[in-house]
Here is the input.
Amino acid sequence: MLKLMTGNNFKEDFIDNLVKLNKQYKNAPVKINELFGSIRKLQVIKSARPDFRVPDIELNVFRKIIDTLNENDMIANYTINTPIVNHHELNEKDVENFMMDLKNYGIKRVTVAHPLLMKVISKVSDMPIEISTIYRLLHPRQLYDLKQYAPNINKLCCEVYYNRNRFLLEELQEHCTKLNIELELLANEFCIQNCIVRDQCYHAHTMNKVFEDTTKFGHFPMGYCISHRERNPEEWLSANFIMPQHMKLYEEKFEISQFKVTGRTAPTKYLSWIIEEYLKMDYHGNLLQLWQDVKNLKRVAEGEQDYRKARYELDSNAIDDDFMNFYLDTEKPIQFQQERDHIKKYLNRALQK
Here is the structure.
């Protein structure tokens, strides 16, 4: 059984949609089993999202949503994945009280990106921890050291670079199994591969409060993100995304069954649609619609329910199993130019159709 951890925008109609979707696809080989997200009124520890994008709801509504998830066999995962922690101001008692509050609300796991927070949480609470992809774990030895440092760890959403590296996936899955840690892959992430501002992007997200904070220095870092791909559209296919129909390849080849679908700050209409596409496991639309375009962030924060279409129309039918097997079945490490040639071939096919 494949499992989806999906973003939670903390809208009651969205939660109702997920309950219906799990029932509608009850005979499918995939189900929604976990949701992640955070709200403004519970930010003792921040998440890697600007304040203006984090849902602002009352605590009684929050409790109702968490109760609904628990009643329908879906894990409520609370996101506290800030990559920046001022250890001079971090207070163990505050963290202990925060974990107790989350537990009382019905939260079953927290997603954390900073190792000090992982350690403190493990010291003051029995709350299970998922290592955030933002931590960017790059080697199995880090996994052993982190597990010793913070014993509550029982899940890892790994660095997206792993998604297309057969050798790293095989090795990491082997060690995750030994440590009883579930390995999860981030599916619909279209960030530029090996982006030069990836870490700084998460730092900016954590520090920004209002939309105006994002506009400085040419909308750094999102301005770079947008303009670079408009000049170099091959970057879309170089991104380490996993299409709905390709999840099965990871289960067959690596026994990986847990996938994360981003979009926790997206509107209900879009987020429900994209989750259903992953439940169908057979997508045939514009590849770029699987990702919430950064150009829409302000519109969504202001309450818009519809996204503007992506600038490029990339036919996902051109991205077949052979495209992914180039990475997942390779007998030796893929060289940079070899991959670029592969990407250009498929980009031409996707643009022509």
